[in-house]
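Input chain follows. Return structure tokens only.
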Amino acid sequence: MSLQKKPQMVESVMFFNERGICKEMLYPEFEALLDGVVNLPEFADQQVRAAFVLINPRLLVKAAVFFYIDFGVKGEADRGWNIPLRHLAERAGSGPDLGSGPIRLSCRSQCAVSWHQMHLWDPSLSPAQNDLLLIRDAAKRNNLGVLIEDETAQAVEPAKLHMASEHKWYMQPDDLELIRSQEAARKTEKTEQEQRLKAAQMIKQQRLRISSLSQQHEEELARLRLQGEQREQALQARLATLERTLAEQAQRNDALKARLTAQAESFQRARENMDRQLQALAQDGRSELDGLRAQFEQEAQARINAALLESQERLARQDAQLASQARHEAQLRAELSQLAAERDRLAREGGEQILERLAGQGVVFVAYHPGAGHLTIPLQDMGAYQRNPQAYAAAKCFVSEAQYGQWLAHYQQPSCIAQLPSGNRCSMPIDRVDSPSRFVSGESDCCARHRSSARQRTLGQ
């Protein structure tokens, strides 16, 4: 007698690109990929979105875990990848109904293990492209060859049939009316229960989408705020350089004016000396004296005119350069004001559009930083990372290096930093803020008493 395979729950992995699901495989094949037995050249040098999916024998989705995985230049999977997909699927929260009741869903905005949150992504729930519906349709297509459970009703053997007593063959009109009313009540109750379940599932799906969009909005707003601060710092540094250049130019102009004054005084002394000489030669004859006087006055006037002309030209050039620098400085100040206003507007209004994530370039090293998780560092970023790892991690968290340092001190020791009248630190244990972008100095690192007192002092001022 041949053994027949019994249908059972199947574990699979589905890969996504910008058009939807591009590849499907069973979980044993995925394990072979992680062990380096096979490679995927079509994913070479990319960070790919994937989903771990549990499919029952009726081709209905029971659980889904949305995660990232990196591939090398030859299509080999990242050796350091170690996300517990089965554990996350078992401990996942409830999600939408894909045909067999609410599924177990684990993603970036709904993760039971916080330190794996950075390596997960949120599925798109938009009507144009709903990733959950794509997974449902892919499971229905059964490209993986899942054994399907036979739902054909089994015929009842005649020996198991039981005949009702003859006096029960006919039903009284009152009994028939009662049965009909009970059946109508059961149908009404069943319809109301189905409508309540559908409404609850729709509300849960909308809450999940709102949570995903809110987190993406916060990350985008933090990134735009960081870019605005960096641009403002660069313009401030450039403005300071121009101000120093302008001050140095003014000092050179003052030195030039002083030298011209000294030259004029020297000419005046030479003229006085020549006058004395002319007076001494006056005894030798009036004509020779007049000739010498005229010649001296001409030479002196020519030298004075040449020096004055040169000084005027130099001063004109300096004035033109100062005017150009003043216009450039005014333009930079206007640009700085415009950028500050744009930064404030972005902080008030927030991003209305969610930018798509760009695939990473070349994974060669992996480093762990609190708040940023396991960072995959491309080869071209290794120089910047070696020069300042903390600044690199702060940029990945979309915060400044100073804010990341303050958050890191709070994350390692979550206690109040306020100073007591005795001079000691309060050190009252407080809740830890897990995300650097949500950390606010003076608020997140203080207990409720010092946080409220600091707010009252601010209002009093």
